[in-house]
Amino acid sequence: MHEGEVVATVEQVTALVHGQFPQWADLPVTAVPIGGSDHALFRIGDELVARMPRMDWALDQAGTDARWLPVLAPHLPVAVPVPIATGAPGEGYPHTWTVAPWITGDTPSAVPVDLTVLAEDLGGFVRALRTIDPTGGPPKTGEDRGVPLANRDASTRAAIAELGDRVDGELVTRIWEDSLAAPEHAGPPQWIHGDLLAGNLLCHDGRLCAVIDWGAIGVADPAADIAPAWSLFDTSGRAAYRRALGCTDDEWRRGRGWALSTSLIALPYYWDTFQTYRDGSQRTIAAVIEDFGS
């Protein structure tokens, strides 16, 4: 999927667990099919999972998860994978890694879910996250999720140019410029998850039960977490999510810009390598266009 990626093997993870966490040495290690872009996952027995970074941009997550998820978890209405151990490089694997509880659930793309109910549940999660004291939280910089959209203008326009006739360049540029014109977030920064894709949400009995993969965590413009309105929900779910969050028009425009920018940049990158992300990006862009024109 990526040039230069490092994917751990079952044999490496087994040896790392034996060497560093002998209390789990008798538990079998099994690979989980790769469903995301940052980590390879390995079950350790039935109740644990090892998260092994695959790319340089994911290397900080072991530290941020260990530092901040214990702070956030008590205030959130669903489970989050708070690490219970941090592993060191070894056995030919070069990165720091973590062990977290395995949370049972299915992604909303894998099981039937009422999207309006999911929108209300996810909206409640985001509202709770935003109320947590952001003091000392990691600020978002550069082109990270939650920075001013203007920081991503050059990259977004470059992606539009690279995509050529695979998108309606004139139309998506007009939508992007509308988001850029929205006033920036005027209040203090708030906690964001930053990557609320379907694959990072777990459901049980039709309700949201966990939010995983906190690699984009930080304190920033909370509009970044409005993006699921277009990447996840249909028209009715989108309306329910907006009601649940109580978005102003300006926040909605910035959220739409986040959904559009991330999808436009991802689309050429994953076009030939990861069909799930390619198709998801195309669906999100289509939803943004539909919503903008309504």
How would you explain this protein's 3D organization?
There is one protein chain. By secondary structure, this protein is α+β, with helices and mostly antiparallel strands. 41% of the residues lie in helices and 13% in strands. It is built from nine helices and nine strands. It has helices spanning 10-20, 61-72, 115-131, 153-163, 169-181, 228-231, 235-245, 249-270, 275-293, and strands at residues 29-32, 39-44, 48-53, 85-87, 97-101, 190-192, 201-204, 207-211, 218-220. The strands form three sheets. The chain has a five-stranded antiparallel β-sheet. The protein has a two-stranded antiparallel ribbon with strand order 6-9. It starts with 9 loop residues before the first helix and ends with a helix.
Order of helices and strands: HEEEHEEHHHEEEEHHHH
- Total number of strands: 9
Strand order of the largest sheet: 1-2-3-5-4
> Which term fits the overall shape?
globular
Strand proportion, as a percent range, falls in 5-15%
Helix content estimate: 40-55%
Unreliable stretches covering 5 or more consecutive residues: none
State the end-to-end CA separation. Answer: 36 Å
From the alpha-carbon coordinates, what is the Rg to the nearest angstrom? 19 Å
**Main β sheet profile:** 5 strands, antiparallel
Report the structural category.
Answer: alpha+beta
